[in-house]
Amino acid sequence: MSSSISKIERGASLAVLVMALGLGAGAAKADDTTGFYVGALGVVNFTETARPVTDVPEYPKLSGISADVSHKTGWGAGVLAGYDFGSFRLQGDVVFRRNKFDKISERGLEYDLSGRVSSFAPMVSALYDISTGSSLTPYIGAGIGASRNKIKDNSFNESKWSFAYQGIAGVNYDLSANIGLGAEYRYFATGERTIGKYLKDYKYDNHSLFLGVTYKFGAAPAAPIAPAVAVPPPPPPEAAPELARSYLVFFDWNASAITSEAAAIINEAAAAAKKLAVTRIDLTGHADRSGTPAYNQKLSEKRAVAVKNALVQLGIPANEISVVAKGETSPLVPTADGVREPQNRRVEIVLP
């Protein structure tokens, strides 16, 4: 059982590592578009030590008892296709896994079962992306499907379809608007079954680590950079300078990245907040009307969160910053639906 426990612990550690990478991200996310995507996967697979009831005529002492079937670290590959709705994704994939096994053992007795077990599994999964306003997007999910398990050794060679289920935790990194890299952990299992003449109630139980690449269709090219503007203008030189209490930070089209011009405005707002000794800063995120209302709502929230993170890095306490997202509902410049208006892609900073 120590081998089984070790593999469970290894699977849990992989899941924690994958999620930690995503939650610690701070760079700008390159692609927020919805739409279809496809991908390919490479798999390192750890099949747990199984404990089926054995029936081995050659070793009567092993018959009718639970014995360990030890598996070696295996490999696999797969393909996937899905649709990204924004925060949620629906994905189908087909994954092949293969592991060797070499013996069963119990009570100091061993019987050679040198062979291999493989799985061909079409699955459908629902995935939830955790927004971080960065290029790294953690996600979790679950799926169901079927698995065609094939068992082969010197004595038998058989395959059988059975119900399968899986739990998923992973992280995607956007290399560009179309291409992403991913790391993922899955717990994958099927129901118990009888294998050949030796093993009864054998459960196929796995921890898998995936590395993959995805391509998203329809991602639009980046728009020209819009300059950041501060409001109101500075007072005349002869007057005593007054600190502004409201600022506007503008963004590129379909992006939540802080530009150099926007960073200068955020620095000015942070300095003013410290000098005025304010205890609250209100941030309101906006988007233009070039996307769907639901998508623009999510994008405006990411922009506001990006400005908040920048203020925190400049020494403003996070608990003194409030964030509101209004999507495309409050344009600075009214436009028709679908128009890319630079002044509507903004976050308003107000020092009450």
Characterise the protein shown here.
This protein is of the alpha+beta class. The protein has two domains: 2-216, Porin, CATH 2.40.160; 246-350, OmpA-like domain (60s Ribosomal Protein L30, Chain: A). Helix content is 17%, strand content 46%. A hairpin with a 6-residue loop joins strand 6 (109-129) and strand 7. The chain starts with a helix and ends with a strand.
Quick recap of the structure?
The chain is an alpha+beta fold. The protein has 2 domains: 2-216, Porin (Beta Barrel); 246-350, 60s Ribosomal Protein L30, Chain: A (2-Layer Sandwich). The chain has helices at residues 2-23, 260-276, 293-313, and strands spanning 35-47, 53-54, 68-71, 74-84, 88-106, 109-129, 136-153, 157-174, 179-195, 199-216, 246-250, 281-285, 321-325, 346-350.
List its salient traits:
single chain; 352 residues; alpha+beta; Porin; 60s Ribosomal Protein L30, Chain: A; 2 domains; eight-stranded antiparallel barrel; elongated
Number of helical runs?
Answer: 3
Which bin fits the share of residues in helices? Answer: 10-25%
State the CATH topology of the largest domain.
Porin
Strand order of the largest sheet: 1-4-5-6-7-8-9-10
User: Total strand count, please?
Assistant: 14
Count of the domains: 2
Mean pLDDT: 80
Per the principal axes of the C-alpha atoms, what is the gross shape?
elongated
Assign the CATH class of the largest domain: Mainly Beta
Strand content: over 45%
Query: Low-confidence spans: pLDDT under 50, at least 5 residues?
Result: 1-9, 11-31
Category from helices, strands and their pairing? alpha+beta
Kindly report how far apart the N and C termini lie.
Answer: 62 Å
Structural Rg? 28 Å
Describe the sheet with the most strands.
8 strands, antiparallel, barrel
Element string (H = helix, E = strand):
HEEEEEEEEEEEHEHEE
CATH architecture of the largest domain: Beta Barrel
